[in-house]
Write a structure and sequence with these properties.
Oligomer: single chain
Shape: elongated
Radius of gyration: 37 Å
Distance between the termini: 87 Å
Bound molecules: ligand C2E, magnesium ion
Structural class: alpha/beta
Length: 556
Protein backbone atom coordinates (compact mmCIF):
# COMPACT_ATOMS: atom_id res chain seq x y z
CA UNK A 1 0.00 0.00 0.00
CA UNK A 2 2.77 2.39 0.98
CA UNK A 3 4.62 1.78 -2.20
CA UNK A 4 1.44 2.42 -4.19
CA UNK A 5 1.03 5.82 -2.56
CA UNK A 6 4.67 6.65 -3.13
CA UNK A 7 4.25 5.71 -6.75
CA UNK A 8 1.22 7.90 -7.33
CA UNK A 9 2.35 10.73 -5.07
CA UNK A 10 4.12 12.77 -7.76
CA UNK A 11 0.89 12.85 -9.75
CA UNK A 12 -1.15 13.72 -6.70
CA UNK A 13 0.67 16.67 -5.36
CA UNK A 14 3.55 17.51 -7.55
CA UNK A 15 1.45 18.19 -10.66
CA UNK A 16 2.50 21.60 -11.98
CA UNK A 17 0.31 24.32 -13.50
CA UNK A 18 0.73 22.89 -16.98
CA UNK A 19 -0.61 19.49 -16.03
CA UNK A 20 -3.45 21.11 -14.09
CA UNK A 21 -4.53 23.14 -17.16
CA UNK A 22 -4.31 20.00 -19.26
CA UNK A 23 -6.46 18.13 -16.77
CA UNK A 24 -8.93 21.01 -16.63
CA UNK A 25 -9.36 21.11 -20.42
CA UNK A 26 -9.69 17.30 -20.64
CA UNK A 27 -12.35 17.24 -17.93
CA UNK A 28 -14.25 20.11 -19.55
CA UNK A 29 -14.16 18.21 -22.83
CA UNK A 30 -15.29 15.01 -21.09
CA UNK A 31 -18.16 16.89 -19.42
CA UNK A 32 -19.39 18.37 -22.71
CA UNK A 33 -19.12 14.95 -24.31
CA UNK A 34 -21.15 13.49 -21.41
CA UNK A 35 -23.80 16.22 -21.88
CA UNK A 36 -24.00 15.38 -25.58
CA UNK A 37 -24.42 11.72 -24.73
CA UNK A 38 -27.30 12.51 -22.38
CA UNK A 39 -28.92 14.59 -25.12
CA UNK A 40 -28.52 12.09 -27.99
CA UNK A 41 -29.67 9.20 -25.82
CA UNK A 42 -32.94 10.95 -25.20
CA UNK A 43 -32.70 13.15 -22.08
CA UNK A 44 -32.05 13.06 -18.34
CA UNK A 45 -34.69 10.44 -17.56
CA UNK A 46 -32.16 7.82 -18.72
CA UNK A 47 -29.27 6.82 -16.43
CA UNK A 48 -26.52 8.27 -18.73
CA UNK A 49 -26.60 11.42 -16.67
CA UNK A 50 -24.74 9.49 -13.94
CA UNK A 51 -21.72 9.33 -16.24
CA UNK A 52 -21.13 12.94 -15.40
CA UNK A 53 -20.07 12.00 -11.90
CA UNK A 54 -16.79 10.85 -13.45
CA UNK A 55 -15.44 14.30 -14.46
CA UNK A 56 -16.82 15.79 -11.22
CA UNK A 57 -15.00 13.23 -9.04
CA UNK A 58 -11.79 13.64 -10.99
CA UNK A 59 -12.02 17.43 -10.90
CA UNK A 60 -12.63 17.40 -7.12
CA UNK A 61 -9.80 14.98 -6.53
CA UNK A 62 -7.13 16.45 -8.78
CA UNK A 63 -8.06 20.12 -9.08
CA UNK A 64 -9.32 20.70 -5.54
CA UNK A 65 -12.67 21.28 -3.82
CA UNK A 66 -13.25 24.73 -5.33
CA UNK A 67 -12.67 23.72 -8.95
CA UNK A 68 -14.59 20.50 -8.33
CA UNK A 69 -17.65 22.44 -7.16
CA UNK A 70 -17.42 24.85 -10.13
CA UNK A 71 -17.36 21.80 -12.40
CA UNK A 72 -20.33 20.34 -10.51
CA UNK A 73 -22.38 23.52 -10.92
CA UNK A 74 -21.50 23.94 -14.62
CA UNK A 75 -22.35 20.31 -15.36
CA UNK A 76 -25.49 20.62 -13.21
CA UNK A 77 -26.58 23.58 -15.33
CA UNK A 78 -25.64 21.84 -18.57
CA UNK A 79 -27.82 18.87 -17.80
CA UNK A 80 -30.34 21.09 -15.93
CA UNK A 81 -32.31 23.97 -17.46
CA UNK A 82 -30.57 23.36 -20.82
CA UNK A 83 -31.41 19.70 -21.08
CA UNK A 84 -34.95 18.24 -21.53
CA UNK A 85 -36.16 15.35 -19.38
CA UNK A 86 -37.24 13.67 -22.59
CA UNK A 87 -35.83 15.01 -25.85
CA UNK A 88 -38.26 13.15 -28.14
CA UNK A 89 -41.35 14.39 -26.30
CA UNK A 90 -39.71 17.75 -25.52
CA UNK A 91 -40.52 17.51 -21.79
CA UNK A 92 -38.55 20.02 -19.73
CA UNK A 93 -37.12 19.17 -16.29
CA UNK A 94 -38.66 20.58 -13.18
CA UNK A 95 -36.45 23.17 -11.45
CA UNK A 96 -36.29 21.39 -8.06
CA UNK A 97 -35.16 18.26 -9.88
CA UNK A 98 -32.12 19.74 -11.63
CA UNK A 99 -31.32 21.91 -8.60
CA UNK A 100 -31.30 18.83 -6.41
CA UNK A 101 -29.12 17.01 -8.92
CA UNK A 102 -26.70 19.94 -9.06
CA UNK A 103 -26.60 19.86 -5.25
CA UNK A 104 -25.64 16.15 -5.36
CA UNK A 105 -22.98 16.90 -7.95
CA UNK A 106 -21.54 19.61 -5.70
CA UNK A 107 -21.61 17.29 -2.70
CA UNK A 108 -19.71 14.62 -4.62
CA UNK A 109 -17.13 17.20 -5.71
CA UNK A 110 -16.77 18.27 -2.07
CA UNK A 111 -16.33 14.68 -0.81
CA UNK A 112 -13.92 13.84 -3.58
CA UNK A 113 -11.89 17.01 -2.90
CA UNK A 114 -11.84 16.27 0.84
CA UNK A 115 -10.69 12.70 0.37
CA UNK A 116 -7.94 13.99 -1.92
CA UNK A 117 -6.85 16.41 0.80
CA UNK A 118 -6.71 13.60 3.37
CA UNK A 119 -4.76 11.42 0.96
CA UNK A 120 -2.35 14.25 0.23
CA UNK A 121 -1.80 14.90 3.94
CA UNK A 122 -1.20 11.18 4.47
CA UNK A 123 1.26 11.15 1.60
CA UNK A 124 3.15 14.08 3.07
CA UNK A 125 3.45 12.19 6.38
CA UNK A 126 4.46 9.05 4.56
CA UNK A 127 7.06 10.85 2.53
CA UNK A 128 8.43 12.55 5.62
CA UNK A 129 8.66 9.18 7.36
CA UNK A 130 10.35 7.68 4.35
CA UNK A 131 12.98 10.39 4.40
CA UNK A 132 13.43 10.70 8.17
CA UNK A 133 15.11 8.53 10.75
CA UNK A 134 12.39 7.37 13.11
CA UNK A 135 14.42 7.68 16.32
CA UNK A 136 16.40 10.88 15.89
CA UNK A 137 13.98 12.64 13.55
CA UNK A 138 16.99 13.54 11.42
CA UNK A 139 17.04 12.96 7.67
CA UNK A 140 18.01 9.41 6.85
CA UNK A 141 20.09 8.37 3.87
CA UNK A 142 17.18 8.89 1.46
CA UNK A 143 16.35 12.19 3.12
CA UNK A 144 19.85 13.53 2.59
CA UNK A 145 19.84 12.26 -0.94
CA UNK A 146 16.53 14.02 -1.62
CA UNK A 147 17.96 17.25 -0.17
CA UNK A 148 20.97 17.16 -2.47
CA UNK A 149 18.94 16.33 -5.54
CA UNK A 150 18.75 20.06 -5.82
CA UNK A 151 21.72 20.88 -8.07
CA UNK A 152 22.40 24.29 -6.55
CA UNK A 153 22.46 22.85 -3.07
CA UNK A 154 24.67 19.96 -4.15
CA UNK A 155 27.14 22.43 -5.67
CA UNK A 156 27.46 24.07 -2.25
CA UNK A 157 28.51 20.80 -0.63
CA UNK A 158 32.18 20.87 0.36
CA UNK A 159 32.38 17.38 1.81
CA UNK A 160 30.81 14.57 3.76
CA UNK A 161 32.01 13.25 7.11
CA UNK A 162 30.66 9.90 8.20
CA UNK A 163 30.80 8.89 11.85
CA UNK A 164 30.84 5.15 12.33
CA UNK A 165 30.22 3.75 15.78
CA UNK A 166 31.84 0.61 17.03
CA UNK A 167 30.53 -1.94 19.55
CA UNK A 168 26.93 -1.08 18.72
CA UNK A 169 25.88 -4.73 18.71
CA UNK A 170 27.67 -5.41 21.99
CA UNK A 171 25.91 -2.45 23.62
CA UNK A 172 22.56 -3.62 22.29
CA UNK A 173 23.19 -7.10 23.61
CA UNK A 174 24.27 -5.85 27.00
CA UNK A 175 21.60 -3.21 27.61
CA UNK A 176 18.79 -4.01 25.20
CA UNK A 177 17.69 -2.78 21.80
CA UNK A 178 16.38 0.55 23.07
CA UNK A 179 19.89 1.60 24.08
CA UNK A 180 20.85 2.33 20.51
CA UNK A 181 17.97 4.70 20.12
CA UNK A 182 19.14 6.51 23.27
CA UNK A 183 22.73 6.56 21.98
CA UNK A 184 21.59 7.93 18.62
CA UNK A 185 19.48 10.71 20.15
CA UNK A 186 22.24 11.64 22.57
CA UNK A 187 24.81 11.69 19.76
CA UNK A 188 22.57 13.95 17.70
CA UNK A 189 22.33 16.40 20.61
CA UNK A 190 26.08 16.30 21.12
CA UNK A 191 26.77 16.81 17.44
CA UNK A 192 24.51 19.83 17.42
CA UNK A 193 26.44 21.29 20.33
CA UNK A 194 29.81 20.76 18.67
CA UNK A 195 28.93 21.70 15.08
CA UNK A 196 27.83 24.99 13.58
CA UNK A 197 24.02 25.35 13.53
CA UNK A 198 23.68 25.29 9.74
CA UNK A 199 25.50 21.98 9.33
CA UNK A 200 23.23 19.34 7.80
CA UNK A 201 23.12 16.13 9.82
CA UNK A 202 21.66 12.76 8.99
CA UNK A 203 21.62 9.21 10.25
CA UNK A 204 22.56 6.94 7.39
CA UNK A 205 22.40 3.59 9.19
CA UNK A 206 21.91 2.19 12.65
CA UNK A 207 25.53 2.85 13.55
CA UNK A 208 26.50 5.73 11.26
CA UNK A 209 25.82 9.45 11.01
CA UNK A 210 26.60 11.69 8.06
CA UNK A 211 27.55 15.34 8.29
CA UNK A 212 27.12 17.32 5.09
CA UNK A 213 29.30 20.36 4.98
CA UNK A 214 28.41 23.52 3.10
CA UNK A 215 29.70 27.09 3.35
CA UNK A 216 33.32 26.22 2.64
CA UNK A 217 33.69 24.05 5.74
CA UNK A 218 36.58 21.63 5.40
CA UNK A 219 35.78 17.98 6.01
CA UNK A 220 39.17 17.17 7.53
CA UNK A 221 39.03 20.06 10.00
CA UNK A 222 35.48 19.21 11.04
CA UNK A 223 36.38 15.53 11.54
CA UNK A 224 39.44 16.45 13.60
CA UNK A 225 37.36 18.85 15.66
CA UNK A 226 34.76 16.15 16.28
CA UNK A 227 37.37 13.55 17.12
CA UNK A 228 38.69 15.95 19.74
CA UNK A 229 35.49 17.32 21.23
CA UNK A 230 32.72 14.80 20.69
CA UNK A 231 31.89 13.03 23.93
CA UNK A 232 31.80 9.22 23.57
CA UNK A 233 30.76 8.02 26.95
CA UNK A 234 27.12 7.26 27.55
CA UNK A 235 25.19 6.20 30.57
CA UNK A 236 22.31 3.79 30.50
CA UNK A 237 20.58 2.60 33.65
CA UNK A 238 23.33 4.44 35.52
CA UNK A 239 25.97 2.24 33.90
CA UNK A 240 28.57 4.19 31.93
CA UNK A 241 29.90 2.75 28.69
CA UNK A 242 32.09 3.93 25.87
CA UNK A 243 31.37 3.88 22.16
CA UNK A 244 34.36 4.22 19.88
CA UNK A 245 33.81 6.48 16.88
CA UNK A 246 35.60 6.57 13.56
CA UNK A 247 35.42 9.51 11.18
CA UNK A 248 35.50 8.92 7.43
CA UNK A 249 36.03 11.90 5.16
CA UNK A 250 35.12 12.50 1.55
CA UNK A 251 35.67 16.04 0.28
CA UNK A 252 33.53 17.36 -2.58
CA UNK A 253 34.82 19.76 -5.20
CA UNK A 254 32.24 21.57 -7.33
CA UNK A 255 32.00 19.91 -10.72
CA UNK A 256 33.27 16.50 -9.55
CA UNK A 257 31.49 13.63 -11.21
CA UNK A 258 30.62 11.84 -7.93
CA UNK A 259 26.94 11.80 -7.05
CA UNK A 260 25.81 12.44 -3.47
CA UNK A 261 25.26 8.73 -3.02
CA UNK A 262 28.87 8.01 -4.07
CA UNK A 263 30.22 10.68 -1.72
CA UNK A 264 28.47 9.07 1.26
CA UNK A 265 29.56 5.61 0.17
CA UNK A 266 33.18 6.72 -0.06
CA UNK A 267 33.05 8.44 3.33
CA UNK A 268 31.63 5.19 4.75
CA UNK A 269 34.43 3.18 3.14
CA UNK A 270 36.96 5.56 4.71
CA UNK A 271 35.31 5.25 8.14
CA UNK A 272 35.34 1.46 7.85
CA UNK A 273 38.97 1.52 6.86
CA UNK A 274 39.69 3.66 9.93
CA UNK A 275 37.74 1.25 12.12
CA UNK A 276 39.66 -1.75 10.85
CA UNK A 277 43.00 -0.03 11.27
CA UNK A 278 42.33 1.93 14.45
CA UNK A 279 42.63 5.29 12.68
CA UNK A 280 40.15 7.66 14.24
CA UNK A 281 40.10 10.06 11.30
CA UNK A 282 40.53 8.58 7.86
CA UNK A 283 40.16 10.26 4.47
CA UNK A 284 38.99 8.35 1.44
CA UNK A 285 41.52 7.51 -1.22
CA UNK A 286 41.90 4.79 -3.81
CA UNK A 287 43.74 2.65 -1.30
CA UNK A 288 40.82 2.61 1.13
CA UNK A 289 38.56 1.69 -1.76
CA UNK A 290 40.92 -1.10 -2.76
CA UNK A 291 40.93 -2.20 0.84
CA UNK A 292 37.18 -2.56 1.04
CA UNK A 293 37.04 -4.26 -2.34
CA UNK A 294 39.84 -6.57 -1.20
CA UNK A 295 37.88 -7.44 1.93
CA UNK A 296 34.83 -8.36 -0.08
CA UNK A 297 36.92 -10.30 -2.55
CA UNK A 298 38.73 -12.17 0.21
CA UNK A 299 35.45 -13.03 1.87
CA UNK A 300 34.10 -14.40 -1.38
CA UNK A 301 37.22 -16.35 -2.25
CA UNK A 302 37.75 -17.66 1.27
CA UNK A 303 34.33 -19.27 1.28
CA UNK A 304 35.24 -21.16 -1.84
CA UNK A 305 38.72 -21.98 -0.56
CA UNK A 306 37.21 -23.57 2.55
CA UNK A 307 34.63 -25.51 0.58
CA UNK A 308 37.24 -26.77 -1.85
CA UNK A 309 39.84 -27.46 0.83
CA UNK A 310 42.36 -25.06 -0.70
CA UNK A 311 43.70 -23.85 2.63
CA UNK A 312 46.52 -25.66 4.35
CA UNK A 313 48.16 -25.75 7.72
CA UNK A 314 51.76 -25.22 8.69
CA UNK A 315 53.00 -26.59 11.98
CA UNK A 316 55.53 -24.89 14.22
CA UNK A 317 57.12 -26.87 17.07
CA UNK A 318 57.17 -25.63 20.65
CA UNK A 319 59.98 -27.03 22.77
CA UNK A 320 60.85 -27.17 26.43
CA UNK A 321 63.86 -24.91 26.86
CA UNK A 322 65.44 -27.05 29.54
CA UNK A 323 65.18 -30.48 27.99
CA UNK A 324 65.03 -29.43 24.34
CA UNK A 325 62.02 -31.74 23.91
CA UNK A 326 59.08 -31.06 21.63
CA UNK A 327 56.10 -30.49 23.89
CA UNK A 328 53.73 -29.10 21.32
CA UNK A 329 53.01 -27.95 17.83
CA UNK A 330 51.08 -24.86 16.80
CA UNK A 331 48.93 -25.09 13.69
CA UNK A 332 49.11 -21.92 11.56
CA UNK A 333 46.84 -21.48 8.58
CA UNK A 334 48.19 -20.82 5.10
CA UNK A 335 46.31 -19.62 2.06
CA UNK A 336 47.96 -19.16 -1.29
CA UNK A 337 45.50 -17.49 -3.63
CA UNK A 338 45.86 -17.58 -7.41
CA UNK A 339 45.82 -13.79 -7.85
CA UNK A 340 46.28 -12.37 -4.35
CA UNK A 341 49.30 -14.54 -3.55
CA UNK A 342 49.84 -15.59 0.07
CA UNK A 343 47.17 -14.04 2.28
CA UNK A 344 48.19 -13.68 5.92
CA UNK A 345 46.04 -15.65 8.38
CA UNK A 346 45.84 -12.48 10.44
CA UNK A 347 44.11 -10.75 7.54
CA UNK A 348 41.67 -13.43 6.46
CA UNK A 349 40.70 -14.57 9.94
CA UNK A 350 39.98 -10.94 10.89
CA UNK A 351 37.73 -10.59 7.83
CA UNK A 352 36.07 -13.97 8.41
CA UNK A 353 35.46 -13.02 12.05
CA UNK A 354 33.15 -10.23 10.93
CA UNK A 355 30.83 -12.72 9.30
CA UNK A 356 29.50 -16.19 9.97
CA UNK A 357 32.29 -17.55 7.79
CA UNK A 358 34.54 -17.82 10.81
CA UNK A 359 32.52 -20.85 11.93
CA UNK A 360 32.91 -23.05 8.83
CA UNK A 361 36.54 -21.92 8.80
CA UNK A 362 37.13 -23.05 12.36
CA UNK A 363 35.36 -26.34 11.75
CA UNK A 364 37.67 -26.88 8.80
CA UNK A 365 40.65 -26.06 11.03
CA UNK A 366 39.50 -28.50 13.71
CA UNK A 367 38.97 -31.35 11.30
CA UNK A 368 42.21 -30.79 9.42
CA UNK A 369 44.47 -30.35 12.45
CA UNK A 370 42.93 -32.97 14.72
CA UNK A 371 42.96 -35.62 11.98
CA UNK A 372 46.66 -34.82 11.48
CA UNK A 373 47.31 -35.06 15.20
CA UNK A 374 45.58 -38.46 15.21
CA UNK A 375 47.89 -39.57 12.40
CA UNK A 376 50.97 -38.39 14.29
CA UNK A 377 49.81 -40.14 17.42
CA UNK A 378 49.41 -43.33 15.42
CA UNK A 379 53.00 -42.90 14.23
CA UNK A 380 54.16 -42.58 17.82
CA UNK A 381 54.60 -38.79 17.85
CA UNK A 382 52.97 -37.44 20.93
CA UNK A 383 52.57 -33.77 21.79
CA UNK A 384 49.99 -31.07 22.43
CA UNK A 385 48.38 -29.38 19.42
CA UNK A 386 47.82 -25.63 19.77
CA UNK A 387 45.06 -23.98 17.78
CA UNK A 388 44.35 -20.28 17.47
CA UNK A 389 40.79 -19.22 18.20
CA UNK A 390 39.06 -15.89 18.18
CA UNK A 391 36.41 -15.20 20.81
CA UNK A 392 33.89 -14.91 17.98
CA UNK A 393 34.35 -18.65 17.44
CA UNK A 394 32.69 -19.39 20.69
CA UNK A 395 29.58 -17.39 19.89
CA UNK A 396 28.40 -20.36 17.89
CA UNK A 397 27.75 -23.22 20.33
CA UNK A 398 28.23 -25.76 17.56
CA UNK A 399 31.93 -24.83 17.37
CA UNK A 400 32.49 -26.02 20.94
CA UNK A 401 30.45 -29.15 20.20
CA UNK A 402 32.58 -29.70 17.15
CA UNK A 403 35.77 -29.59 19.23
CA UNK A 404 34.50 -32.47 21.34
CA UNK A 405 33.11 -34.26 18.35
CA UNK A 406 36.49 -34.38 16.60
CA UNK A 407 38.39 -35.21 19.80
CA UNK A 408 36.11 -38.19 20.17
CA UNK A 409 36.14 -39.15 16.51
CA UNK A 410 39.94 -39.17 16.40
CA UNK A 411 40.25 -40.62 19.85
CA UNK A 412 42.40 -37.78 21.17
CA UNK A 413 42.51 -37.05 24.92
CA UNK A 414 41.32 -33.46 25.54
CA UNK A 415 44.55 -32.52 27.31
CA UNK A 416 46.36 -32.95 23.99
CA UNK A 417 44.58 -29.90 22.63
CA UNK A 418 45.44 -26.35 23.60
CA UNK A 419 43.26 -23.42 22.65
CA UNK A 420 45.09 -20.11 22.12
CA UNK A 421 43.12 -16.92 22.49
CA UNK A 422 44.75 -13.50 22.26
CA UNK A 423 44.85 -11.18 25.19
CA UNK A 424 43.08 -8.41 23.27
CA UNK A 425 40.21 -10.71 22.29
CA UNK A 426 39.75 -11.79 25.90
CA UNK A 427 39.91 -8.23 27.19
CA UNK A 428 36.94 -7.25 25.00
CA UNK A 429 34.60 -9.38 27.05
CA UNK A 430 36.34 -10.80 30.00
CA UNK A 431 33.26 -12.27 31.72
CA UNK A 432 32.21 -14.23 28.71
CA UNK A 433 35.77 -15.31 27.96
CA UNK A 434 36.14 -16.64 31.49
CA UNK A 435 32.94 -18.69 31.18
CA UNK A 436 33.84 -20.22 27.84
CA UNK A 437 37.44 -20.96 28.71
CA UNK A 438 36.33 -22.47 32.02
CA UNK A 439 33.92 -24.81 30.24
CA UNK A 440 36.71 -25.96 27.91
CA UNK A 441 39.09 -26.45 30.78
CA UNK A 442 36.57 -28.46 32.77
CA UNK A 443 36.57 -30.93 29.91
CA UNK A 444 40.37 -31.13 30.08
CA UNK A 445 41.30 -28.88 27.15
CA UNK A 446 44.25 -26.57 27.79
CA UNK A 447 44.00 -22.83 27.44
CA UNK A 448 46.80 -20.41 26.58
CA UNK A 449 46.81 -16.63 26.33
CA UNK A 450 48.44 -15.68 23.05
CA UNK A 451 50.45 -12.50 22.37
CA UNK A 452 50.68 -11.89 26.09
CA UNK A 453 51.87 -8.43 27.06
CA UNK A 454 50.51 -6.57 24.05
CA UNK A 455 46.89 -6.00 24.93
CA UNK A 456 45.90 -5.33 28.48
CA UNK A 457 47.57 -2.79 30.74
CA UNK A 458 46.13 -4.31 33.90
CA UNK A 459 47.00 -7.86 34.77
CA UNK A 460 44.17 -8.28 37.26
CA UNK A 461 42.14 -10.08 34.66
CA UNK A 462 44.52 -13.02 34.83
CA UNK A 463 43.13 -13.94 38.21
CA UNK A 464 39.66 -14.27 36.76
CA UNK A 465 40.75 -16.47 33.88
CA UNK A 466 41.13 -20.19 33.89
CA UNK A 467 44.37 -20.61 31.90
CA UNK A 468 47.28 -23.04 31.68
CA UNK A 469 49.88 -21.04 29.81
CA UNK A 470 51.02 -17.57 28.79
CA UNK A 471 52.58 -17.06 25.38
CA UNK A 472 54.72 -13.97 25.71
CA UNK A 473 54.52 -11.98 22.49
CA UNK A 474 57.45 -12.06 20.10
CA UNK A 475 58.06 -8.30 20.29
CA UNK A 476 59.46 -8.78 23.77
CA UNK A 477 61.69 -11.70 22.77
CA UNK A 478 63.00 -9.72 19.83
CA UNK A 479 64.04 -6.69 21.83
CA UNK A 480 64.79 -8.38 25.15
CA UNK A 481 68.59 -8.27 24.75
CA UNK A 482 68.82 -4.57 23.95
CA UNK A 483 65.85 -3.23 25.81
CA UNK A 484 65.67 -3.60 29.56
CA UNK A 485 61.94 -2.78 29.66
CA UNK A 486 61.18 -5.70 27.31
CA UNK A 487 63.33 -7.97 29.41
CA UNK A 488 61.56 -6.79 32.56
CA UNK A 489 58.21 -7.67 31.02
CA UNK A 490 59.38 -11.20 30.18
CA UNK A 491 60.93 -11.57 33.61
CA UNK A 492 57.76 -10.50 35.38
CA UNK A 493 55.55 -12.62 33.09
CA UNK A 494 57.66 -15.65 34.04
CA UNK A 495 57.54 -14.79 37.72
CA UNK A 496 53.85 -14.13 37.75
CA UNK A 497 53.09 -17.14 35.57
CA UNK A 498 54.98 -19.46 37.89
CA UNK A 499 53.35 -17.87 40.90
CA UNK A 500 50.01 -18.78 39.38
CA UNK A 501 51.12 -22.23 38.31
CA UNK A 502 51.12 -21.43 34.62
CA UNK A 503 53.63 -22.45 31.97
CA UNK A 504 55.32 -19.58 30.17
CA UNK A 505 56.10 -19.84 26.47
CA UNK A 506 58.30 -17.30 24.67
CA UNK A 507 57.30 -16.67 21.06
CA UNK A 508 59.58 -15.52 18.25
CA UNK A 509 62.96 -16.91 19.34
CA UNK A 510 65.23 -16.14 16.40
CA UNK A 511 68.75 -16.50 17.86
CA UNK A 512 70.72 -18.78 20.11
CA UNK A 513 71.45 -15.82 22.39
CA UNK A 514 67.76 -15.17 22.90
CA UNK A 515 67.15 -18.85 23.66
CA UNK A 516 69.98 -19.00 26.19
CA UNK A 517 68.82 -15.81 27.86
CA UNK A 518 65.25 -17.08 28.16
CA UNK A 519 66.55 -20.29 29.68
CA UNK A 520 68.43 -18.22 32.23
CA UNK A 521 65.29 -16.27 33.06
CA UNK A 522 63.52 -19.55 33.79
CA UNK A 523 61.14 -19.52 30.82
CA UNK A 524 59.55 -22.95 30.38
CA UNK A 525 58.95 -23.29 26.66
CA UNK A 526 59.96 -21.59 23.45
CA UNK A 527 58.87 -21.26 19.84
CA UNK A 528 60.51 -19.43 16.96
CA UNK A 529 62.51 -19.51 13.75
CA UNK A 530 65.68 -20.47 15.63
CA UNK A 531 64.04 -23.71 16.69
CA UNK A 532 62.05 -24.17 13.52
CA UNK A 533 59.96 -22.15 11.10
CA UNK A 534 56.33 -23.20 10.63
CA UNK A 535 56.45 -26.17 8.21
CA UNK A 536 54.04 -27.92 5.86
CA UNK A 537 52.87 -31.27 7.17
CA UNK A 538 55.43 -33.52 5.40
CA UNK A 539 58.39 -31.41 6.51
CA UNK A 540 56.98 -31.11 10.02
CA UNK A 541 56.63 -34.90 10.23
CA UNK A 542 60.26 -35.43 9.16
CA UNK A 543 61.43 -32.74 11.58
CA UNK A 544 59.47 -34.18 14.49
CA UNK A 545 60.66 -37.69 13.68
CA UNK A 546 64.29 -36.59 13.55
CA UNK A 547 63.93 -34.71 16.80
CA UNK A 548 62.50 -37.80 18.49
CA UNK A 549 65.31 -40.01 17.20
CA UNK A 550 67.89 -37.45 18.33
CA UNK A 551 66.34 -37.33 21.78
CA UNK A 552 66.19 -41.12 22.04
CA UNK A 553 69.90 -41.27 21.16
CA UNK A 554 70.74 -38.72 23.88
CA UNK A 555 68.66 -40.65 26.41
CA UNK A 556 70.30 -43.95 25.40
P1 LIG B 1 50.31 -16.27 16.53
O1 LIG B 1 49.37 -17.30 16.99
O2 LIG B 1 50.95 -15.41 17.55
O3 LIG B 1 51.37 -17.06 15.69
C1 LIG B 1 52.69 -16.79 15.67
C2 LIG B 1 53.06 -16.04 14.44
O4 LIG B 1 54.45 -15.71 14.54
C3 LIG B 1 52.97 -16.89 13.18
O5 LIG B 1 52.67 -16.00 12.11
C4 LIG B 1 54.36 -17.44 13.01
O6 LIG B 1 54.67 -17.78 11.70
C5 LIG B 1 55.17 -16.27 13.48
N1 LIG B 1 56.46 -16.66 14.01
C6 LIG B 1 56.79 -17.81 14.66
N2 LIG B 1 58.08 -17.78 15.03
C7 LIG B 1 58.59 -16.60 14.63
C8 LIG B 1 59.87 -15.98 14.71
O7 LIG B 1 60.84 -16.52 15.26
N3 LIG B 1 60.01 -14.74 14.18
C9 LIG B 1 58.97 -14.10 13.56
N4 LIG B 1 59.18 -12.90 13.07
N5 LIG B 1 57.74 -14.64 13.46
C10 LIG B 1 57.58 -15.88 13.99
P2 LIG B 1 51.52 -16.36 11.11
O8 LIG B 1 51.55 -17.79 10.80
O9 LIG B 1 51.60 -15.37 10.03
O10 LIG B 1 50.24 -16.13 11.96
C11 LIG B 1 49.92 -14.87 12.40
C12 LIG B 1 48.74 -14.91 13.30
O11 LIG B 1 47.59 -15.33 12.61
C13 LIG B 1 48.88 -15.90 14.45
O12 LIG B 1 49.63 -15.32 15.46
C14 LIG B 1 47.44 -16.12 14.84
O13 LIG B 1 46.99 -15.08 15.70
C15 LIG B 1 46.71 -15.96 13.51
N6 LIG B 1 46.32 -17.28 13.02
C16 LIG B 1 47.08 -18.16 12.34
N7 LIG B 1 46.34 -19.25 12.05
C17 LIG B 1 45.11 -19.06 12.59
C18 LIG B 1 43.91 -19.82 12.65
O14 LIG B 1 43.83 -20.94 12.16
N8 LIG B 1 42.82 -19.29 13.29
C19 LIG B 1 42.88 -18.04 13.87
N9 LIG B 1 41.80 -17.57 14.49
N10 LIG B 1 43.99 -17.30 13.82
C20 LIG B 1 45.10 -17.80 13.20
MG1 LIG C 1 49.09 -18.44 18.36
MG1 LIG D 1 51.28 -15.06 19.23
Amino acid sequence: MNSFFLMVSPYLYEGGLKSKILMFVSLAFLSVLGGQLVYVTGGTYLPYVHLLYVPIIIAGFWLGIFTGIIFAICIGLMVGPFMPLNVAQDIAQSTPEWLLRTGFFAMIALLSGMSAQITRAYLVVLKRRYLTDFETKMPNYKGLEALYKDEERFAMLTGVVVIKMRQVKEVEKAFGLETMSYVAIKTKERLKEVLSPETVLGRVSNDAFAICLENKEEALKVAQHLSQYLERTYKFDKIPFLIEMYFGIMPHVKGDSDSFRTLVKKALVAADHGLQNSLEVCAYNEETQDFSERNIYILHELREAIEQDQLSLNYQPIISLNKNEVIGVEALARWGHSTLGMVSPLEFTRIAEQTQLINPYTKWLLKKSLSQLAQWRKDGLDFVLSLNFSMKNFEDPTVVQEIFHYLEEYNIPPQMLEVEVTETAIARNIGKAADILQSLREKGIKVAIDDFGTGQSSLNYLFELPVDALKVDQVFTRSMLDNSAAEAIIRSAIMMGHEMNLKVIAEGIETKKQLEHLKKLGCDYGQGYYISRPMPVELATTWLDAKRTQLMKIQA
